[in-house]
Structure to design on (190 residues):
């Protein structure tokens, strides 16, 4: 994980000398998928994009999202809850590289569509009853590979400042889609 992160940072720094660079910060909502009674959480994403040619964009990103859900695994979680309740916290971290198409519709509007590869780290925290009236929290985590897909529509109010609306998802080989995120993003160009 450290090697991949270091490699992505070095790639970003080396590309800065050859391309227009956009630094973006996105916040919004995150929805994990494939869980019972999923409740959306928050999302924050930091990315560095490089416009290499007229329409080619390469992006390195780090994305954090969280959600709540109901853990239905009775071997792990045996705490009784109400119907429709949540009892587990889920956090995800994605660090990856994407490439795609970028275009300016006019002086003020732009759009992009990207796909890539990233690490996907998920951590779950849930209550566990180990004796009658005695509860503790258990935790599990794993790291896998995922394929991010992202689309954005931006508005440039000033030359080097853009506000965009971003929609994205993460596809994992073992599951169809493991998470969705959407929200506004602020981009600064250098």
């Amino acid at each position: 994980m450290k090697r991949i992160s270091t490699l992505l940072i070095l790639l970003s720094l080396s590309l800065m000398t050859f391309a227009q660079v956009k630094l973006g910060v996105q916040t919004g909502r995150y929805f994990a998928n494939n869980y019972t009674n999923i409740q959306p959480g928050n999302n924050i994403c930091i990315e560095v994009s490089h416009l290499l040619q007229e329409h080619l964009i390469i992006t390195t990103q780090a994305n954090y999202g969280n959600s709540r859900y109901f853990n239905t695994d009775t071997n792990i979680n045996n705490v009784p809850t109400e119907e429709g309740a949540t009892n587990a916290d889920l956090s995800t971290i994605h660090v990856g590289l994407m490439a795609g198409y970028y275009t300016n519709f006019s002086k003020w509007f732009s759009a992009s569509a990207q796909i890539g590869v990233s690490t996907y780290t998920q951590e779950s925290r849930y209550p566990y009853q180990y004796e009658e009236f005695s509860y503790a929290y258990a935790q599990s985590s794993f790291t896998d590979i995922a394929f991010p897909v992202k689309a954005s529509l931006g508005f440039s109010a000033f030359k080097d400042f853009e506000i965009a609306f971003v929609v994205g998802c993460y596809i994992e080989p073992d599951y169809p889609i493991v998470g969705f995120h959407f929200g506004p993003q602020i981009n600064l160009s250098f």
Q: What stands out?
A: The helical segments are 2-15. The chain is about 5% helix and 70% strand. The first strand starts at residue 20 and ends at 32. The chain has a mean pLDDT of 83.
